[in-house]
């Protein structure tokens, strides 16, 4: 997970103790359920070039290499310490992936010329200011090839009093200003504003920290004469 500046830092570190990152995420977010659903939605193919924006420790990159391995995998995250952990995890799993340091808004520059067909992002957008959400989606749109796809798993619209109450835990950690737009269901609107088509919320997973939504969107190629 990554986010924009908080006081003197230019990102929010995943956790003070990196060894606790994976088990805490698994425990508090029902990670196995939403990550497996996200993987099915992404449906990697042998011809895909897939970028994971906010790749964290590389768990999804490893998962996407199983079965039909994509042509190329790219991970992007602003935290060099967590990228180092990702390199170790990828090496242990025998997975080849290119790791780059950067933010959501850097997606277009970092992925230029890579031929990216699919971009995935999980538990990133809720941590970023509204301006960064918009800049990130614009950069992701620019980075994708025509007919490319965006797949997001993140805290979305908190539909019930229970989910809104549970999401307060996340807000206390990551701040109300950055997280509230997600809780209000802003992501599909921002995706449409960035130019994406066929924007859809495909699943909602209740967790101990609020509901996590899966989204799918497409960058459609311009038709000749349009």
Helix/strand layout:
Blueprint: H1 21-29, H2 31-42, E1 49-53, H3 59-64, E2 72-77, H4 80-93, E3 98-101, H5 107-111, E4 118-122, H6 130-143, E5 148-155, H7 161-174, H8 176-183, H9 187-193, E6 197-207, E7 210-219
CATH superfamily: Vaccinia Virus protein VP39
CATH topology: Rossmann fold
What is the terminal separation in angstroms?
38 Å
Q: What order do the helices and strands follow?
A: HHEHEHEHEHEHHHEE
Q: How many beta strands in the DSSP annotation?
A: 7
Number of self-contained structural domains: 1
What is the averaged pLDDT score? 90
What about the largest sheet? Answer: 7 strands, mixed
* Approximate strand percentage: 15-25%
Helix content: 25-40%
Please mark out the parts with pLDDT under 50 across 5 or more consecutive residues, or reply none: 1-10
Could you walk me through the main structural features you see in this protein, from its secondary elements to its overall organization?
By secondary structure, this protein is α/β, with parallel strands linked by helices. It has a single domain (18-219), classed as Vaccinia Virus protein VP39 (Rossmann fold, 3-Layer(aba) Sandwich), CATH 3.40.50.150. The protein has 9 helices and 7 strands; from the N terminus they run ααβαβαβαβαβαααββ. The protein has helices at 21-29, 31-42, 59-64, 80-93, 107-111, 130-143, 161-174, 176-183, 187-193, and strands at residues 49-53, 72-77, 98-101, 118-122, 148-155, 197-207, 210-219. Strands 3-2-1-4-5-7-6 form a 7-stranded mixed sheet, sandwiched between helices. The chain starts with 20 loop residues before the first helix and ends in a 7-residue tail after the last strand.
């Amino acid at each position: 997970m990554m986010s924009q500046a908080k006081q003197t830092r230019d990102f929010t570190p995943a956790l003070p103790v990196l060894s606790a990152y994976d088990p805490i995420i698994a425990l508090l977010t029902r990670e196995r359920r939403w990550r497996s659903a996200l993987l099915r939605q992404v449906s990697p193919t042998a011809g895909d070039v897939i970028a994971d924006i906010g790749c964290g420790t590389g768990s999804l990159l490893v998962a996407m290499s199983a079965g039909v391995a994509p042509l190329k995998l790219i991970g992007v995250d602003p935290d060099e310490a967590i990228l180092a952990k990702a390199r170790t995890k990828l090496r242990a799993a025998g997975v080849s992936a290119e790791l780059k340091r950067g933010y959501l808004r850097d997606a277009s520059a970092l992925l230029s010329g890579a031929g990216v067909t699919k971009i995935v992002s999980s538990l990133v957008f809720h941590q970023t200011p509204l301006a960064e959400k918009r800049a990130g989606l614009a950069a992701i749109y620019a980075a994708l090839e025509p007919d490319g796809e965006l797949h997001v798993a993140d805290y979305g619209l908190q539909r019930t009093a229970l989910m809104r109450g549970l999401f307060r835990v996340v807000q206390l950690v990551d701040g109300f200003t950055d997280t509230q737009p997600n809780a209000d269901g802003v992501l599909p609107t921002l995706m449409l504003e960035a130019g994406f088509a066929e924007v859809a919320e495909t699943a909602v997973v209740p967790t101990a920290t609020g509901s996590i939504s899966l989204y799918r969107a497409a960058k459609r190629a311009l038709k000749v004469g349009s």
